[in-house]
Design a protein that fits this description.
Layout lengths: L1 H11 L3 H4 L15 H8 L11 H31 L4 E3 L3 E11 L3 E10 L5 E10 L10 E4 L6 E3 H6 L1 H27 L7 H16 L1
Antiparallel strand pairs: 1-5, 2-3, 3-4, 5-6
Length: about 210
Amino acid sequence: MADFGKRTTNARQEPPHQQASGVHGTPTWSDHISSRDLKALERGRLPAWANMSRLKLLSFALLMGAMVLGAVGFYGPELARDLRYAGTYSVAYDLRATDGRCSRYIFLVSLCSAKIHSVMSEAATSSTEFLMSFRGADGAEMVPVRSTVDASAVGIQYAVSDVLLNRTLSLLGVMLFFGWAAWFFLDCVRKGRYKDGPAYEAVKQYVALHSNSG
């Protein structure tokens, strides 16, 4: 019985970091705090996710997913068509292109569009939209083209030849980036890395522990 009593006394004198593990399976702070989180805490700042609620993270994840679907739905079909008919486009002298414009965002991605008309009519017969990265269309000629395989497939020569590979890689890059962002936000929710979540409690344990030791 004396030995039993000694063990009880020693257990109560364990250092704070051992007590921080909690009881009944409560995780320690080290189970949830990453090395990046530690660097932020050492600089006296909370991790970025500590200011986001669970609902906010889920909203961001849905938004990123919507960006992926939007990019695929808006730019994917025309890109797939141009890849399928690559090398079959020739200048369409019965068409003319107007209203060409490109908007560049953060010097990385350019979103371009143009309208294609019949030379015999003012009504636009078609339009083209595409995105590309790390370049703009400044100075590029808007030469309308038509596929010799499918007469309904019309576009701009610059888009179907000069930047076709760029368009393909750009769309894949956008999908991967926003897809990764959606996964990141969902992973934060899964790991409890949000305000008042399990990882947030671990951060508070870490801060309390180092405040006491200081």
